[in-house]
Design goal:
single chain; alpha/beta; Aminopeptidase; eight-stranded mixed β-sheet; about 15% strand; binds zinc ion
């Protein structure tokens, strides 16, 4: 029999034994106060990216970085929770605005950047975090300074924090896409980018809970999408939105849920111009989202249809969900440039037509 004793206290010991040994110990008069499998024991300590991908930020590291950015830049940045996930994690939002902080409304034109709707798309969190860090590092550059003073900028890097943690918590990637809602049939997760209330679950989405594109039991059934809904409804000043996903080297704009072009020709031209302006920095292909595939209930269709927001989806580069750490710097650098371009038009997106 093998026993690995980890700790000896006055009246107890803890350690590892084979489960057959528990009976032997009981015969000898020992009492087992508590036990767990070695797998569960290991899980408590893993919950992180594989060592080779340690540069990626898990939820705790994301939270710490956002707190540090806010603490180091109190005149510009503030951090607040935009809501709670299914498992009760805070959905952190970093706000960059030189006059208003936290949840206070602002009449300045607003821009919203969201990462990690989909759990395994960890690069999208890195790009959003990289954008936050860049804007604060360069807060005294003339152009950035102007945006920080005249705009109301919000960055939610990790919307689906539960899913992102679930994806890494065994120390091996699980290829998890959805949130961690336990469905009626015990399957896990709703596709947050199919859960918005725009042509909900009519195409490119599934009513089957086991599906990777499960749309949920109703529009905005999930606390994560509901948080975005409430966020946007409470902030009528938001003019532009970028939702980061990976991967495909694409820049997408509405409609996602219809395979016909946007009916409003003026707005369609604005979308096309802005897309062109952004892909000049990323090299991604700009197209109407439904050119990739028709998918209803996504963020951008809802934000545009409901609030008139010029809302885009970036499908980042990398050729896979787990492209390694070598890609982070370039993806951040180029997408930050595109994001700053979007800031340059957020005061009045229609100006690109003039
Ligand atoms: Zn995605």
């Amino acid at each position: 029999m093998r026993r690995d004793i980890v700790e000896i206290k006055a009246k107890s010991v803890s350690g590892f034994v084979h489960k057959a040994e528990l009976a032997v110990l009981a015969e000898k008069g020992y009492v087992v106060e508590a036990k767990m499998t070695i797998y569960d024991y290991a899980l408590q300590y893993l919950k992180d990216f594989p060592p080779a991908d340690a540069a990626y930020h898990n939820y705790k590291e994301t939270t710490e970085l956002l707190n540090t950015l806010a603490a180091n830049n109190p005149e510009t940045a503030s951090l607040f929770s935009a809501g709670k996930t299914v498992e009760g994690r805070d959905i952190w939002c970093l706000r960059l605005n030189t006059t208003e902080k936290g949840g206070k409304p602002s009449s300045k034109p607003g821009a919203l950047y969201i990462g990690n709707h989909h759990a395994r798309e960890h690069l999208s969190n890195e790009v959003a975090l990289g954008l936050a860090a860049y804007l604060l590092e360069h807060k005294n550059d003339a152009d950035i300074k102007k945006y920080l003073q005249t705009l109301d900028i919000y960055i939610i890097p990790m919307l689906n924090a539960d899913g992102a943690e679930y994806d890494i918590k065994t120390g091996k990637y699980r290829w998890h896409r959805k949130n961690t809602r336990i469905n009626a049939d015990k399957t896990i997760g709703v596709d947050l980018n199919r859960n918005y209330d725009m042509r909900w679950c009519t195409a490119g989405a599934s009513h089957s809970p086991y599906s990777d594109t499960y749309c949920g039991t109703a529009p905005f059934s999930e606390p994560e999408t509901l948080a975005v809904k409430k966020f946007i409804e409470a902030r009528k000043n938001i003019k532009t939105l970028m939702s980061y996903h990976s991967y495909s080297d694409l820049l997408l704009y509405p409609w996602a849920g219809l395979d016909t072009p946007l009916e409003n020709e003026k707005d369609r031209k604005v979308f096309e111009k802005l897309a062109k302006g952004m892909v000049a920095f990323t090299g991604y292909k700009p197209e109407q989202a439904s050119d990739l595939y028709v998918a209803t209930g996504d963020t951008t269709d809802w934000a545009y249809a409901t609030a008139g927001i010029f809302a885009f989806t970036t499908e980042l580069e990398g050729g896979g969900f787990y492209p390694g750490t070598g890609i982070i710097a370039r993806a951040v650098t180029n997408n930050v440039k595109a994001a700053v371009y979007l800031l340059s038009v957020t005061d009045d997106p229609y100006k690109v037509l003039r």
